[in-house]
């Protein structure tokens, strides 16, 4: 066990102990602040519902993020490499990029035929801009000496994009991917709380409407655990993709 992992387990144990102490002494309203045993018991009892909710949530997350991935990175490489195209696209980036994607929900529900498509679209919008903007920035941050050397060797357009600019921009792309993933989860929860019939966001909203805050806390913990595990895998992937940089460093 690494020192970092040991420190995290110690911190988790302290948090659970403090949680148990506060709820055991009834320092807070027990209807709003359940004990750890109560929450974990509910997670086990509702495991079938959580399993179904996870499948539903990951289904929406997959389509939204996949669409952002296959559009944002190629477009970011092209726009970042072509200065004239960048000068045309930059105002659009500055206008549309900062708009909170959640404001598109009513419009997406109105124009798209199903809730699933509307939710996937909102997740796509939220994941697209951080990934696209960071890809553009990453391309523009590639050292000019590397680009000049590639030009001297006479590399073609596609080779320049895929073999020179893409690896050079990868640190920025992965940073944008982190932001996109977090944004996607936020929008996923928001979308599921509005009109879904399954999903982690739906689970939390459904039981909140019935004032069953014990299950609300259980849903929040499950969602937090899912995000935590997913980010661990993402960080491992990022380390693998940047192994050349780590070895160089």
UniProtKB/TrEMBL annotation:
UniProt keyword annotations, A-Z: Cell membrane, Membrane, Transmembrane, Transmembrane helix, Transport
UniProt domain ABC transmembrane type-1: residue ranges: 54-234
SUPFAM superfamilies named in the record: MetI-like (SSF161098)
GO terms of biological process kind: transmembrane transport
Gene3D superfamilies in the cross-refs: MetI-like
Chief localisation class: membrane
Transmembrane regions: 60-81, 93-115, 121-142, 154-173, 179-204, 216-234
This protein's name: Putative aliphatic sulfonates transport permease protein SsuC
Record organism: Methylomusa anaerophila
């Amino acid at each position: 066990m690494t020192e970092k992992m040991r420190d995290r387990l110690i911190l988790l144990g302290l948090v659970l102990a403090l949680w148990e102490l506060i709820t055991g002494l009834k320092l807070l309203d027990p209807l709003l602040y359940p004990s750890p045993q109560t929450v974990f018991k509910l997670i086990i009892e509702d495991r079938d519902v959580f399993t179904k909710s996870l499948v539903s949530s990951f289904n929406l997350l997959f389509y939204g993020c996949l669409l952002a991935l296959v559009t944002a990175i190629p477009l970011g490489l092209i726009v970042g490499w072509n200065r004239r195209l960048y000068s045309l696209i930059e105002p659009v980036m500055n206008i549309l990029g900062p708009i909170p994607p959640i404001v598109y929900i009513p419009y997406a529900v109105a124009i798209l035929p199903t809730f699933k498509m509307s939710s996937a679209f909102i997740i796509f919008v939220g994941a697209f801009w951080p990934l696209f903007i960071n890809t553009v920035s990453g391309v523009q941050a590639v050292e000019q000496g590397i680009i000049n050397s590639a030009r001297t060797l006479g590399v073609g357009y596609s080779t320049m994009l895929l073999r020179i600019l893409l690896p050079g921009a990868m640190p920025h792309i992965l940073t944008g991917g982190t932001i996109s993933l977090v944004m996607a989860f936020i929008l996923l929860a928001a979308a599921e709380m509005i009109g879904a019939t399954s999903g982690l966001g739906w689970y939390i909203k459904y039981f909140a409407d019935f004032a069953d805050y014990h299950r609300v806390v259980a849903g929040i913990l499950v969602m937090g655990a899912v995000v935590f595990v997913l980010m661990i895998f993402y960080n491992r992937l990022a380390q693998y993709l940047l192994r050349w940089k780590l070895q160089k460093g």
